[in-house]
Write a structure and sequence with these properties.
Layout lengths: L7 H15 L10 H27 L6 H10 L10 H13 L7 H9 L4 E8 L6 E8 L1 H4 L13 E2 L7 E3 L28 E4 L5 E7 L3 E4 L10 E5 L1 H12 L6 E5 L2 E13 L3 H13 L9 H10 L2 E9 L10 E12 L1
Parallel strand pairs: 2-9, 10-12
Antiparallel strand pairs: 1-2, 3-8, 4-7, 5-6, 5-8, 6-7, 10-11
Helix pairs in contact: 1-2, 3-4, 5-7, 8-9
Length: about 350
């Protein structure tokens, strides 16, 4: 029991009991001198207790107020990222306390990747391409970037700003929404498109800004860094930002480090249920389960049956899609396609 959690009335009653025990016959009724003195003393004690309870909360990062939690994180070399929630900052702080830096083990690579703005999760695959190699699969913050898959667009050197606009990069010859599939063999490969969170640098002035919005030939920026046309630019994708950060902090003994987006596998669900099944609930639960899956997690038919039973189904006579368990590799990220749950 926390000794600082006594309420005012509890403290007041204890003081009045002491008065009556030590001074038999003492008037402790409301408005009496003893009651007034007891109330003043109880108020002071309650205030001291409340202050001590507040101090006790700030001692630990998991109970501290945000301002002091940030200070706890700072002592570990952790700083709040752009748009990062208190819960996510605390998770990173607790991670480094529970798994201190260990000279480049898999958890170090995960932590380094998550130190980059707009990366919300990461997975390390030691020896992904053989001895001395490490693959890191990263997940972007889709609430900011618009997609879980991080950008991997690397524009041609010599791209030029062809127009002027407030906090804009305009290039009439560019296609910032261009996509060619999944070409991610190195942090230097293309693949598109540009997304919010990427960094644009004016190669003429050296000024840089983050991308806030994307159109075919125009990028909206958080800062005004192109005062006139004719200035060159370079775009650093989120994948590249992560690679640069890890290259700066990692040990030198790993020969090849690859930063990769997950290989998204869209899986349609088509199943028949019997009984008093709540079809909308089952559909929502399956979708939520699949959206929460992490790279490398497989989808099993029994998971779908379990959700159906939880939603009131007596039996699942048919799962038409997928036909079998969907077994994921370490690089696969399973996500829901069309979910069709229907009653027999």
């Amino acid at each position: 029991m926390n000794p600082f959690l006594q309420e005012f009335d509890e403290i007041l009653n204890k003081i009045l009991v002491d008065y009556r025990n030590q001074l038999p016959g003492c008037d402790t009724s409301k408005g009496s001198m003893a009651a007034i003195k007891a109330a003043c003393l109880a108020s002071g004690v309650w205030g001291i207790n409340a202050y001590q309870a507040w101090i006790a909360r700030q001692i630990f990062s998991d109970t501290a107020d945000p301002e002091y939690m940030e200070h706890h994180a700072w002592t570990q070399g952790i700083f709040r990222k752009i748009g990062e929630s208190d819960a996510d900052l605390l998770a990173r702080d607790l991670e480094i306390r529970r798994r201190p830096p260990a000279g480049g083990n898999r958890y170090d690579f995960i932590r380094w990747a998550k130190e980059v703005d707009h990366i919300v999760d990461a997975y390390c695959i030691p020896w992904g391409q053989g001895a001395g190699t490490i693959d890191v699969v990263i997940i972007a913050d889709k609430t900011f970037t618009g997609a879980e898959i991080p950008s991997a667009y690397v524009p041609l050197e010599g791209g030029l700003c062809t127009g002027v606009g407030a906090r804009k990069l305009i290039d009439a010859g560019a296609n910032f929404t261009w996509t060619t599939g999944t070409i991610y063999e190195s942090p230097f490969d293309g693949g598109g498109p540009v997304r919010p969170g990427d960094i644009v640098r004016n190669t003429f002035t050296g000024a840089s800004s983050r991308v806030a919005g994307v159109d075919t030939t125009t990028l909206s920026l958080t800062d005004d860094i192109f005062p006139e046309a004719g200035h060159g630019y370079h775009i650093t994708s989120l994948t590249r930002q992560c690679w640069l950060h890890i290259e700066d902090v990692r040990p030198v003994r790993a020969t090849i480090i690859r930063i990769l987006p997950p290989a998204t596998r869209i899986v349609d669900i088509d199943m028949v249920v019997e009984g008093n099944a709540n079809v909308p609930w089952i559909t929502g639960e399956i979708q939520a389960m699949m959206l929460a899956m992490r790279p490398g997690e497989s989808l099993f038919l029994d998971q779908l049956r379990n959700k159906a039973v939880q939603g009131g189904a007596f039996r699942v006579p048919l799962i038409a899609a997928p036909a079998n368990d969907v077994i994921a590799t370490s690089y696969d990220l399973i996500r829901p396609g069309v979910i069709n749950v229907r009653k027999a």
